[in-house]
Design brief:
about 200 residues; alpha+beta; Arc Repressor Mutant, subunit A; five-stranded antiparallel β-sheet; Regulatory protein SdiA
């Protein structure tokens, strides 16, 4: 039985009751999707103190693949980020990092917290499977054609259907079909939405 298909966000909240942070398909700038379910007072303190660059959890995530309890991270913590996290109730944590050597260079990661005890091995496997599944769900489609990408690039640049057809030397009907195919492959509602998703994926 594939546990990764069973665990959902409600299960994550049970396993990590103090909160979690999830960044999916993070490239050079922003993740395609970000979920921050950590305590608001900790988020505010973390942001105000600019802990991101010195956080040993984040440094481990970018340098490794797999899962590790926060207590097992052997990195300097000059700003005592983890010690301060404990004062906000994040006493025990788990970091999960997923990278599958995709050509876009995108990784996904999760950071999960409890107040009562360390994460168990079954819980670690469960959360690793969850982050891995979400990473793959956000993967760009591999069947989108160069012609469809070209049309999406022009939509992103603000060209209208007639202009795209003229630039490509094809009929408006052909452009419509390319955009229709691209929308279906990307799971988008409109051409603009498809272009935005293609940009997020690094396709255009």
């Amino acid at each position: 039985m594939d546990v990764s298909k069973q665990i959902g966000i409600d299960d994550v909240k049970v396993v990590a009751p103090v909160g979690h942070y999830l960044a999916l398909r993070l490239g050079f700038a922003f993740p395609m999707e970000e979920i921050n379910n950590l305590p608001p007072d900790w988020v505010e303190h973390y942001t105000t103190q600019r802990f991101m660059l010195s956080d040993p959890v984040i440094r481990w995530i970018y340098a490794n693949v797999g899962a590790v309890r926060w207590s097992d991270i052997d990195l300097e913590d000059h700003n005592r980020v983890l010690a301060q996290a404990r004062t906000f109730g994040l006493r025990f944590g788990l970091a999960v990092s997923v990278f599958d050597n995709n050509p876009e260079g995108q990784r996904s990661f999760g950071s999960f917290a409890r107040a009562d005890r360390e994460f168990t091995e079954p819980e670690i496997r469960l959360l690793t499977a969850y982050v891995t599944r979400r990473h793959h769900e956000k993967a760009p489609p591999r069947n989108i054609t160069n012609a469809e990408i070209e049309a999406l690039r022009m939509v992103k640049d603000g060209l209208r259907l007639k202009q795209i057809a003229h630039e490509l030397g094809v009929s408006e009907g052909a452009v419509k079909q390319r955009l229709k195919n691209a929308k279906k492959k990307l799971g988008a509602q409109t051409g603009a939405h498809a272009a935005a998703l293609a940009a997020d994926y690094g396709l255009i």
